[in-house]
Design brief:
single chain; alpha/beta; 10 strands; 30% helix
Length: 308
């Protein structure tokens, strides 16, 4: 318990409130939103630097780069960001990445790297008639890996409504019509996606993929229990330590601990695909079997996905 308690005493980093956009988000106003959020990130960097937090200042400054497309940005607390890779306005297929524990603005670079790896793969593999985009959605306060919150669905319960709202918003940001959306969920992010899944029907989500999952949480011990019209996929790398986590769910002192059935087990009923020999952080590694299969799922090439 020493690490999470010590982390809680870290001084709050001053940051501006999120940018107030003067016009609603539409395909035509995406560039305006990107500019406003980059300016907000630049101001956050200045405030963090004045506070003496060089690490956060550097992270904010990177996100303020002219090459970054921030759909949403909030530097307060551990921070949240929604970043677009590609031409979202004209995309017909969109991948939304949902991260797991310990993903904050301070560690955002590794999340961006995963999204960038996928986008490069999609750019290389997609037909010219299938424009794609990737969205890195850090839209919730993730739990710390060494903490009690990572063992319970509390943060996922808080995050799920925000993910549902973002998917609804996403439907209005592609032209000439809504894109096909694939949710790619990693680690604790799989609990978030499972919580959101029942409310996503009719919102264009065609596929939900769980990678490196500890389980999907209360009431979701099978793909059918997610009550989604989307195809449900699951994978785990041969070197992923999450395989050693007990897939149990227990009531303890008035709360639920653990996340139940392993999504790659036959009893869960997901479409299990090959992820290769990688570890817990390797699902988006260039050249990996996992990344290749995730790209096929996003592109709708489901018959090409290699099964485990």
């Amino acid at each position: 318990m020493v690490l999470p308690l010590s982390a809680a005493t870290r001084p709050q980093i001053p940051a501006p409130p999120p940018a107030a956009l003067s016009t609603p988000l539409t395909p035509a106003t995406l560039t305006t939103a990107y500019t406003a959020n980059r300016e907000n990130a630049a101001e956050a960097a200045r405030m963090a630097a004045a506070h003496g937090d060089r690490s956060r200042a550097a992270a904010d400054r990177t996100l303020a780069s002219p090459t970054r497309h921030l759909l949403h940005f909030d530097a307060r607390g551990t921070g949240q960001a929604t970043e677009v890779l590609g031409d979202l306005a004209h995309a017909t297929r969109v991948a939304v990445l949902v991260p797991g524990s310990d993903t904050t603005l301070d560690t955002y670079a590794r999340f961006h790297t995963a999204a960038e790896s996928l986008y490069r793969r999609l750019t290389r593999e997609a037909p010219r008639t299938t424009p794609t985009a990737v969205v890195a959605w850090l839209g919730y306060r993730t739990p710390a890996t060494i903490s009690t919150t990572v063992l319970t669905p509390g943060r996922a319960d808080q995050a799920a409504p925000h993910l549902r709202e973002f998917i609804r918003e996403l439907r209005t940001l592609t032209a000439p019509g809504p894109a096909a959306v694939s949710l790619l969920c990693h680690s604790y992010g799989t609990v978030v996606c499972a919580r959101a899944a029942p409310a996503l029907s009719g919102l264009g989500v065609t596929d939900i993929a769980f990678v490196g999952s500890p389980g999907t949480g209360t009431g979701a011990d099978s793909a059918a229990a997610l009550h989604t019209s989307a195809r449900v996929w699951a994978a785990r790398g041969a070197g992923d330590w999450i395989a050693d986590v007990p897939h149990l769910r227990l009531g303890l002192f008035g709360t639920t601990v653990g996340f139940g059935t392993d999504p790659v087990s036959p009893s869960f009923g997901a479409r299990v695909f090959a992820a290769g020999p990688g570890g817990h952080s390797d699902y988006f590694t260039p050249g990996s079997a996992s990344l290749a299969n995730l790209a096929r799922i996003v592109l709708g090439e489901t018959t090409e996905v290699t099964r485990a």
